[in-house]
Amino acid sequence: SERERERERTRRRRRGQKMSSTRYDRQMRLWGENGQKLLSSAKILVLDAGATSAEAAKNLILGGISQLTMCDSPKRMVEERDLGNNFMTSLSFEKGDEDEGDDDANDDALVLERTKRIKRGDMVCKHLKLLNRNVEVNFWEEDPREMIERFRRGEEDKEEDKEELRHHRLQDFDVILASQLDEPTMIKLDDICQKLGKKLLTLRSNGCFGTVKISGAKTHCVVEAKPENRKMDLRLSESGVFTELEEFAEKFEDLEAMDEQRFAHVPWAVLLLVAKKRFDEKQRQTLEDGDYEAQKQFKEFLKSMRRTKTELNFEEALENVRMAWQKPDVPENVSECFEKLPREFRSVTEEGDGVVMMDTETTLSSSDVVSITDVGASDVSTKLFWIFVAALEEFTKRNKKFLPLDAGALPDMTSTTDAFVGLQRVYLEKAQKDQREMLRIVKETIVPNLKTTTRSNDNNSTSVSHGSKIVDVIEKDVDEKQLEEFCIKFCKNARDIRFVSFTSLADERDIWRWENKPEHEGKKAQVASFLAVDSPQRVCAYSYALLRASDAFEAKLCRKAGTYAPEEGVDNVVASSGTEKGKSMLFHRMTSDCAELRALVTKNLEAAMFQSFSTSTSPTKMDVVEKPPSDDADAVNDDGGNGSNNIKAAKAEEAGKFLERLAWEVVRSQGGEIHAVASVVGGVASQEAIKLITGQFVPSHGRVCVHLADGSSAVLP
Question: Are 686 and 643 in contact (CB under 8 A)?
Fold first, then answer.
């Protein structure tokens, strides 16, 4: 009956949940139960079924996502090179209808021929399904380029927009991975993802070089950054110590009356508070002002309190003595979030009959802040992030620039169990008090502001409507328990929150084309520094420039560098063979293609290559050759401007040889994917995808590049 089937589905679901907690136990220790829950509900779209995308898909499936859909051309059959570089393909020993009655159907040649009749995407998906039976794997039979073009046409056609969206289902996926697509196609896809607010990961591998870039939705908010080295905040300074902590420290003031065992197990945080209370009052007040002599005397005073030189708690106190005068500070990453905060989230004050913004000193230009429209179009977690960033800014103003306390930041100390547990309880209660204050600011200040705020001197009803809509979504989709849980998580990680912005692929193209746009000048200077002769990232920078050049080469000549076009009537396999004729043909083609690639790179980056020879981004006096007077042309000697030109000519020649060597590698690879490189690139891409899905750790803001032959890596602008 239907009731019995429902019971069976419930039993399977519970059994699956129990198995998941066991299956993913190790990785749950890394990103927690909530991170695994988000991962288990994620839907991923992968465009292309090559070696690089298959490696990324494999890692995500093993991680335990909900669904993976792979889109690949139905005309793309398994080829012999796929069997050599893609572990998700293999020879097919299953007999087809055309093999019936053939006794030699398992002959090697016939097996290979039969395999070549299978769709590559179909075979890859079948292998991926075997990795994790809890993940749904689907094969979308459509050429990714045709799909992108069709979707773009649907976007432009307003009448058919909704139908096209439903047909393509792109909005149903959380993250989209696009592999081995040319630059113009990726830019079109990036534009679509921006409109849908979806994260896009583009990945390429070409010979020994590989690259991964995040784009699509332009921003990403991180609460759980999980840095390797977290700064401790124990509130031990004069301005930071709170009443409950002072009262707890008073229990240990009579150090002289303690026996040796108890004396050696007073927590070092308490020792610092006791020592500060006994220290000279005038000098104590100058500790936080950076008075070096007072700080030095305090250390000596702390040493004088020891009975022997074997007390470990005093050693720990001396190692952390700076915390006794540590000033409250707002980290740079948190300040950046404050700067990007939409104006409508800030505190307001009544002035006359209208409502105007406070904190005019923090008001930035409209290009420096996040638009409230973008926040309104984002998901619930992003809306909550900005609401709590606004509350955090208000909290720091009310609490002398201190951030909410993180009780979990209390380090291990040499102490008795009772003393440590008691100290832990004091910090826990203070942390909970800060959390309640944050929640109160959200409910009593930020949310009412969003409902009523308009921009100063501009009665813009759009601001009001967007603020109200944000509040309506929060009240509808987030219950009280969820709000409290987010508040606890946010306060615990308040010091490490991040706002990450991504460069669109169109802007990146303009940067590497050296377009004359003022907003790109900073990143163009970074590119020039990467191309410099002494830059350790030089190989990756030039390799990426050559990858872009190879796309332009293919668009221009309708063939990959180092290969022959079909209309030329030359078999690429024969040309690549080891015969003398094949070697001669291949060398001639590679030489001409290498020169073409160099010309394409130099065309765009000649200014950057020239600029990288100088230490500054603008010409210096040595860079400028003054024109000599017409009546005394011999006045210029070899040590003047001409000497500078000779140096530049030598460096330009060296850069040309360096570029030629890398161009030969690109031509020799013929656009092929090497499995070792595909594995690394796929691993980086899947790692970045997990960061985006879970909202944990900080994703790369630039283009990640690796060159395995050189062993170098870089993050390019």
Answer: no
pLDDT tens for each residue of 336-395: 999 998 887 875 433 333 433 444 344 444 456 888 888 887 888 999 999 999 999 999
- Whose CA is closest to 31, among 602, 643, 693, 705? 693
State the burial class of residue 417 (Cβ atoms within 10 Å of its Cβ: 0-12, 13-18, 19+): exposed
Average predicted confidence (pLDDT) for the chain: 82
> What's the pLDDT at 621?
33
pLDDT band of 95, cuts 50, 70, 90 = low
Compute how many other C-beta atoms are within 10 angstroms of the C-beta atom of residue 18: 10
Q: Which of 541, 505, 548, 474 is nearest to 712 (CA)?
A: 541
Q: Are 451 and 361 in contact (CB under 8 A)?
A: no
Average of per-residue pLDDT across 224-244:
87
DSSP track, 424-486: HHHHHHHHHHHHHHHHHHIIIIIHHHHHH--BTTB--HHHHHHHHHHHHHHHHH--HHHHHHH
- Residue 309 pLDDT greater than 80, yes or no: yes
CB atoms < 10 A from the CB of 513, how many?
13
The one-character DSSP state at 136 is: E
pLDDT at 618 over 60: no
Q: What is the 3-state secondary structure (H, E, C) of 372-427?
A: HHHHHHCCHHHHHHHHHHHHHHHHHHHCCCCCCCCHHHCCCCCCCHHHHHHHHHHH
Indicate the residue type of 87: F
Distance, C-alpha 569 to centroid of its chain: 46
Nearest to 402 by CA among 414, 412, 393: 393
pTM of the model: 0.83
d(CA 291, CA 277): 18
Confidence of residue 625 (pLDDT cuts 50, 70, 90): very low
246-260, 296-310, 576-590, 618-632: least confident range: 618-632
Question: What SS3 class is residue 105?
Answer: coil
Of the candidates 623, 690, 706, 712, which has an alpha carbon nearest to the alpha carbon of residue 220? 690
The stretch 87-116 carries a mean pLDDT of: 67
| pLDDT tier for residue 647 given thresholds of 50, 70 and 90 | low
Alpha-carbon gap, residue 707 to 714, rounded angstroms:
9
Which among 72, 57, 67, 389 has a CA at the least distance from the CA of 222?
389
Q: How is 579-648 classified by DSSP, letter by letter?
A: SHHHHHHHHHHHHHHHHHHHHHHHHHHHHHHHHTTSSSSS--TTT--PPPPTT-GGG--TTTHHHHHHHH
- One-letter amino acid at 151 equals F
Beta bridge partners of 216: 199
Helix (H, G, I), strand (E, B) or coil at 563: coil
* CA distance linking residue 296 with residue 298, whole number of Å: 5
Give phi and psi for 139, each to the nearest 5. -110, 120
By percentage, how much of the chain surpasses pLDDT 70? 79
